[in-house]
Amino acid sequence: MDIDTGAAAGTAGTERTGTVEWTVVESAIGPLLLAATGRGLVQVGFHAGPERRERMLDRLAGQLGAEPVERASGRLAEAVRRLDRYFAGEPDDLDLPLDWSLTTGFNRQVLRELAAGVPYGTVVGYGDLARRVGQPGAAQAVGAAMGSNPLPLVVPCHRVVESDGGLGGFGGGLETKRQLLALEGVLPAPLF
To answer: For residues 122 and 159, is the Cβ–Cβ distance under 8 A?
Structure first.
């Protein structure tokens, strides 16, 4: 899960990403848009009904400089298989090849720590995650990084909670966050 492009999003277009493949899969939390480049999974989008899906694909094309092509096999086959297992209740950290090109700087650092250091069935506080990346006063910035996560579920921002046990925020909606934590057998308790 540690593929690093080193390039800023959208700067090298198809030279950097090649073809962008996408599909929509049904899940226990609704339709998910999955997109991948030759480097790995680049985006997961919640609530991917037709209108929202079109907006996500237009934005992705602009960010990556390549028109996404619909395919459910090839680059996406393993992600689809692993997500099916995850939603069937089989513990899975969804350790997949990732293309980190849609995130940079502090956000990328936080998201990489989250992906590597917060396994299935556990939670972490915003402040604790800030400390893990050497920025102990940056809990709010960690929250912003979670909100900009292009790979939710796979980079498990649903596992980041408030230190008092509150759920905090979630781009997919708090009910979705509750469902994912319940699926993993964890609902936040105070972390003190």
So the answer is: yes
| DSSP track, 93-155 | -----B--TT--HHHHHHHHHHHHHS-TT--EEHHHHHHHTT-TT-HHHHHHHHHT-SSTTTS
Give the residue-averaged pLDDT of 179-184.
93
What are the beta bridge partners of residue 124? 160
**Single pTM value for the model:** 0.86
| CA 44 – CA 155 distance, rounded (Å) | 9
Is 61 in contact with 11 (CB distance < 8 Å)?
no
Q: Contact, 187 vs 177, CB < 8 A?
A: no
Joined together, the tokens standing for residue 170 give 């979630």
Active site residues: 157
User: Which residues are within 8 A (CB) of 35 and not within 5 positions of it... i.e. 6 or more apart?
Assistant: 20, 21, 22, 41, 42, 43, 44, 45, 57, 60, 68
CA 108 to mean position of chain CA atoms: 11
Average pLDDT, the chain: 88
Measured in whole angstroms, the distance separating CA 92 from the mean position of its chain's CA atoms is: 14
Q: What's the Rg (C-alpha) of the chain?
A: 16
